[in-house]
Amino acid sequence: MEQSKKIKIAALQMSSVVGDKRANFKCVENIVSKELQGDTDIFVLPEVWTVGWSCEDFVSSAETLDNSDTIKLLSSIARDYNVNILGGSFILKNSDGRLYNTCPVINRKGELIAMYSKMHLYSYCGCTEGSYITTGKSPVMVDIDGVKTGLTICYDIRFPEIFREYRKAGADLLVNMAAWGISKPLPWEVLTRSRAIENQAYMAVSYTHLTLPTKLE
What we know:
- The protein has helices at 21-35, 58-61, 69-81, 129-132, 160-168, 185-199; strands at 9-11, 42-44, 84-86, 90-93, 99-106, 112-117, 141-144, 147-153, 173-181, 202-210.
- The protein is built from six helices and ten strands, in the order E-H-E-H-H-E-E-E-E-H-E-E-H-E-H-E.
- The chain is globular and about 45 Å long.
């Protein structure tokens, strides 16, 4: 018989300030200090929460792996709250200069243990993600406290094959971290429920709203 395992997941939903990394860092720190409970096992952030959905700002916001303010912040939160973090995504600049929409996975000790780069880029209806971002090479499933977790980012949700492959490989939990239009709640709900039902697996999701820039008070 399979042993059951209980975990507590906190998923962050926010409206990022477009192009203002400092404001978005402050927003996450404030939410965490007020809302993140000490017994949380996995904390999930949304896609490009650091800069908001602005493809034109991806280049200026890109971070190298060895000097990433985003990973430093998330590592600090992980240690302070003894929580595993699925870091939504930030724009990673590789050694060859290519940019990737990348999710960092950080354990309770603040250590970077895995990264997943978005495999399906959204370049439709006037959006130009594919003009700035390089496609990720492969799926990534990571073991988090004994829970096999399959990672996806936003537009990946429309490609059920990746979720099926995760499940076939033994995934216990499927995760999607997105930047999603606030005016399109129905497709989001249908797609996330579908991926869970199709694969008879638990699904955790987190997203940042696509809205006009706002300022934090």
